[in-house]
């Protein structure tokens, strides 16, 4: 394919032979550039991204300006409108924008790798639809979101638990890209474009709107936090609201089921049993002397550290597992007596009911894998 630079070079090579031809060339180039600046929704032909700062999928290049940036905002509004029509939350729009930035720089391309075309570079050969269908931005966005009326490839709403998964992992689950790490890199750019386009990414909605059959168990209580409230980390944590139950004080009188040899409270022992029943095999340690922090709940038998197997900042599976553990602890706090949870640089309190940044409590280095709780989920009991 070519862009206005290619056209200009070709004409200027001929124009060097005559001053009169130069004048004509200038008019021709201006005319061609004008045609390329057609609004993204006009006519039957679709615009192609010209002068992309970097190949699609790469972050860190100059932000497009002028008509390209304006068209990005227009396409962002269209994608969000489809999400609104579907009844989907703002988080669905954010993931779609991140994906389109990676795949096409948020432009409706009529070309791509193999037979990929459109905003999301969907492939006719993969069942996303015909070229004409995919080149319709409304159709392409609806297909990306998925559901019973969408093409065969699974879309966003077809992914169980997507609201609590890292944003980039959700995009990858839909796109099945050979470069899965690129999506998360475009989150802040997507947020900026959404802000400029007046899109509310905090909008509530049904995360499985349009899905055929029943939504996955527990989805009605997912209560997804907007990622702005999670430090922009791109994680998926649930709030669950404040809990006002009364929990009588208990002493450590039960042998620690996690095998430390210490003693824990009956409430902690009961939580360990429930966690194992609901979360499967867990690597955890509860009682600990914690001589460096005598105010900790560990020596009182009122806390457990559940390991996720790696630094979740460097391991997507560890991040997903940690989110799963933390979300379960939060959702069941009213029944189990969870006081607070610390995970991935954030802390949730039953009295507050929301996640806020964790500063280490004056004892731990919050940037460290262990101090910031990036390699384990800390759960304290009343």
From TrEMBL:
Residues 261-362 form the ARB-07466-like C-terminal domain. Residues 204-262 are annotated as: Disordered. InterPro entries: ARB_07466-like_C. Keywords: Membrane, Transmembrane, Transmembrane helix. The chain crosses the membrane at residues 20-42. This is ARB-07466-like C-terminal domain-containing protein. It comes from Kribbella pittospori. The lineage of its organism: Bacteria, Bacillati, Actinomycetota, Actinomycetes, Propionibacteriales.
């Amino acid at each position: 394919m070519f862009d206005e630079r290619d056209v200009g070079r070709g004409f200027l090579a001929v124009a060097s032979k005559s001053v009169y031809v130069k004048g004509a060339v200038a008019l021709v180039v201006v005319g061609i550039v004008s045609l390329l600046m057609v609004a993204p929704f006009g006519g039957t032909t679709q615009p192609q991204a010209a002068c992309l700062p970097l190949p699609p999928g790469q972050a860190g290049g100059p932000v497009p300006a002028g008509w390209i940036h304006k068209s990005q905002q227009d396409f962002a509004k269209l994608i969000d409108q489809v999400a609104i029509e579907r009844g989907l939350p703002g988080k669905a729009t954010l993931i779609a924008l991140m994906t389109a930035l990676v795949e096409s720089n948020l432009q409706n391309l009529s070309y791509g790798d193999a037979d990929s075309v459109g905003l999301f570079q969907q492939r006719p050969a993969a069942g996303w639809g015909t070229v004409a269908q995919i080149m319709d931005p409304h159709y392409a966005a609806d297909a990306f979101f998925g559901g019973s009326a969408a093409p065969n490839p699974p879309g966003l709403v077809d992914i169980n638990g997507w609201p609590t998964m890292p944003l980039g992992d959700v995009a990858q689950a839909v796109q099945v890209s050979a470069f899965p790490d690129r999506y998360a890199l475009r989150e802040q750019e997507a947020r900026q474009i959404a802000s400029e386009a007046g899109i509310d990414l905090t909008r509530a909605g049904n995360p499985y709107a349009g899905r055929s059959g029943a939504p996955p168990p527990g989805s009605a209580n997912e209560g997804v936090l907007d990622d702005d409230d999670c430090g922009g980390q791109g994680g998926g944590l649930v709030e669950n609201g404040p809990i006002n139950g009364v929990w009588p004080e208990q002493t450590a009188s039960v042998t620690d089921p996690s095998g430390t040899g210490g003693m824990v409270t009956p409430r902690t022992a009961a939580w360990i049993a429930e966690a194992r029943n609901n979360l499967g095999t867990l690597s955890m340690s509860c009682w600990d002397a914690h001589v460096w922090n005598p105010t900790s709940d560990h020596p009182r038998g009122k806390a457990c550290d559940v390991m996720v197997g790696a630094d979740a900042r460097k391991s997507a599976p560890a991040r997903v597992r940690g989110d799963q553990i933390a979300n379960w602890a939060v959702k069941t706090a009213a029944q189990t007596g969870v006081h607070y949870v610390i995970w991935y640089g954030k802390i949730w309190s039953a009295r507050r009911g929301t996640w806020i940044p964790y500063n280490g409590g004056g004892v731990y280095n919050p940037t460290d894998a262990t101090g910031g709780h990036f390699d384990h989920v800390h759960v304290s009991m009343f």
